[in-house]
Specification:
The complex is a heterodimer of chains A (about 290) and B (about 325). Chain A is built from 14 helices and no strands. Chain A is mainly alpha-helical. Chain B is mainly alpha-helical and about 325 residues long. In chain B, strand 1 and strand 2 form a beta hairpin. The chains are: A mainly alpha (about 290), B mainly alpha (about 325). Chains A and B meet through helix 2, helix 4, helix 5, helix 6 and helix 7 of A and helix 2, helix 4, helix 5, helix 6 and helix 8 of B.
Amino acid sequence: MRGPISWARDPWRKPRLLMFSTWVYLAWSLIPVVFAILISFTAGRSSASMNGFSFQYWHGAPGGDPQGSLFTDPALHSAIYQTIWLSVTTMFIAVPLGVAFAIALDRWRGRPAAGANFLMLVSFVVPEIIIGVALYLFFTHVFTPFRTLGTTPQIIGLVAFQISYPVIVVRARLLSIGPEFEEAAMDLGAPPRAALGRILLPLLYPAIFASFALVFADVVDDFVTVRYLSSNGSETLSVKIYESLHGTPSPEYNAAVTLLLGITVVGGIIIYLAYRRISKGRTGGGAIEFAGGI
Amino acid sequence: MVQAVQSPREERRAARRRAKAQRKEHGAWYPRWYWPSFATPGTLYLLIFFVIPLYVVIALAFGTVDRYTNPIPVYQPWYWSGLYMSQVLNAAIGDNRFVYLRTFIYIITASVLCVGISYTVAYYITRFGQKRRGFYLALLVSPFFISYLMRMLAWNNLLASNGYINKILGWIPLAPHNVAWQTGNQLTIVLGLIYGYVPYMVLPLYGFLDRIQTSLLEAGKDLGASSVRTFFRVTLPLSKQAILAGIVIVTLPMFGDYYTHNLLGLSPATSMIGNLLDDAKGSGLGSDSRVASLCLVIMILMLLPMAYYLYSTNKELKER
């Protein structure tokens, strides 16, 4: 056995303390979530502990009250559709806008470019509540074609908040690609537009699809902007969960947040399959490239 | 040799020709509007749906009321009145002073602890992660895809008075028993903030530490420094900027955070500035003006960290 001092001085000792803390961190960050999923399958009434196993908070107890469980509660049906509708629409508006923005910021120099970059970065770091409240005041006091809040204002607000994410992800990728490939294509006689569409865009696919996944996941989870801009009937599932959590917790909400996670995961898988399909036959196309985009 | 005298017009033409030739030599030539046109839709969008709403916030914060005391925005700065703003500021040094103070203490404590946690984790994974790096990264990224609601609800369940945390504490002798986590416990909120925001710091820190060249660390060791000394003299000074940037990234959203408190505690003893704003909405007459004024106050409080963030990202882009 060695003494503790010689152990501490050994430069080749394994970093056990660091390893231990890292594993504690990872456990701490994920185990509560696993626990929350488990609770949704409880048979008891309390959401603080697991009592038996049942699907009653998902699909209702036989002969029980339709309210209080996720799929039988009619109020939650429209919320689930609204969640999916908002996230898909926002994704298809925000990502193209952001990708074009990122390419421009990578190429365009000068004062106006610095201004556009500044604008984008500010919209990235401003807390969501500020954007939500500002748009709420904007839609109720000034821009009033949609006198009532609802789906359209929600999408407008979500795009305004999300637009900076694809810009940042795609721009990081652009920095690592560099201008060489495009220049080579143009040296070989490709006109600029072809160099952009056939060389640069495929190189950006991992970042673009990662942005799709990121924006989709973020909108599914959003309960700030959506809540401030929602009217009666246009609440999403996350807004409903947020508002009901003020009351007494029930395992029904555990089922609801698990469903949110499920929507995110399914959306991510669909986006990943689309990525695989579109980048087929090219180098890369693997899961690691895709994750690298994030 | 006598140079031919050119008229200014000819000179300009010649300059343009030269510039064009130069651009051709460098590969591509694009019309001047080409790249700006890519940024136009996004910029216009942000101008209309981000900048103008922020101006509406200012106009309402300094606005007036009509006969029915409905707030009216005032867009001309020379007609602004400071009525609502002064109410909010008076409350900030009066009734609400503890809310502001508490928010600052929470933010500072949480971000300092975030640095400690995320630096340890990021350092271990970059230096010793080796083959399992992809696995670790997947675990680090996963919180981004798990909703904030879910992560807070999980703690809400665990910290309930008859929840598992209290049960575990019950088994440990000398540990406090039956802790009231959810009724005004400061620790709960700080831990909740850390839990919510630490993933946003781990990932950028990892990205930065990964870029530090190992040759620098080897040089440190070759020159006779122990690994601890190498860490303190080489790695840590190199990552100073990344740490500051990480602090800003987690601090800024905390200024507007109201949901952590609402999801974990909901006791007035632990409310934050964000809660003042959230509670002000729909709180009776003139609420929109109060909301706007609070929005403005939060923006002003954030100004310094935000300026630092913009400055450091610009600097980093120029260095690359």
